[in-house]
Amino acid sequence: MAAFRIAVPLLMLSVFAASPLRAEEIGAVNTNFKLFGSDKIVVEAFDDPLVGGVTCYVSKAKTGGLSGAVGVAEDTSDASIACRQTGPLVFKSPLPKKEVVFTERRSLVFKSLQVVRFVDTQRNALVYLTYSDRVVSGSPKNAITAVAPANGERIPVKP
């Protein structure tokens, strides 16, 4: 029992401290009126941390109401993603074939939204997948998008 008392606060601390990359809110629309804040669809943008010139836009459901206002609501797994080349591509280092580039909590402790970048070496493209995971059972809901260098430049990949 003593180990449980130590493990739970450490788990919660790691969840709250785990997302170094922050998304910028672009806008939102209300979908369901609630007295203490409506349910929304929120559109956010973040730049790929290792590929300059790529911005990803994620739309996702955000739960309102009293539980949403105090940060204890569990948001749904619904999300969509579109990544675009917004400037010259600058590869800061060779890329792993698979890497989590963004994560955000979707409930108090156990659920998160993930964005994973894959490198399709055969087609010379960056493929971005968004999905929701959970400690016990994740969701099969997902969305995908791709960005290919316009000038034919090869994507550097870690061996």
Describe the protein in words.
13% of the residues lie in helices and 48% in strands. The chain has 159 residues and is mainly beta. The chain has one domain (2-147). The protein has a four-stranded antiparallel sheet with strand order 1-2-3-4, with no helix packed on it.
Keywords:
159 residues, mainly beta, 2 helices, 8 strands, 48% strand, Uncharacterised_CreA, signal
Uncertain runs? 1-19
Provide the succession of SSEs. HEEEHEEEEE
Instruction: Identify the overall geometry.
Output: elongated
Distance between the termini: 45 Å
Number of helices: 2
Share of residues in helices: 10-25%
Strand order in the largest sheet: 1-2-3-4
In a few lines, what is going on in this structure?
The protein is mainly beta and 159 residues long. Helix content is 13%, strand content 48%. The chain has one domain (2-147).
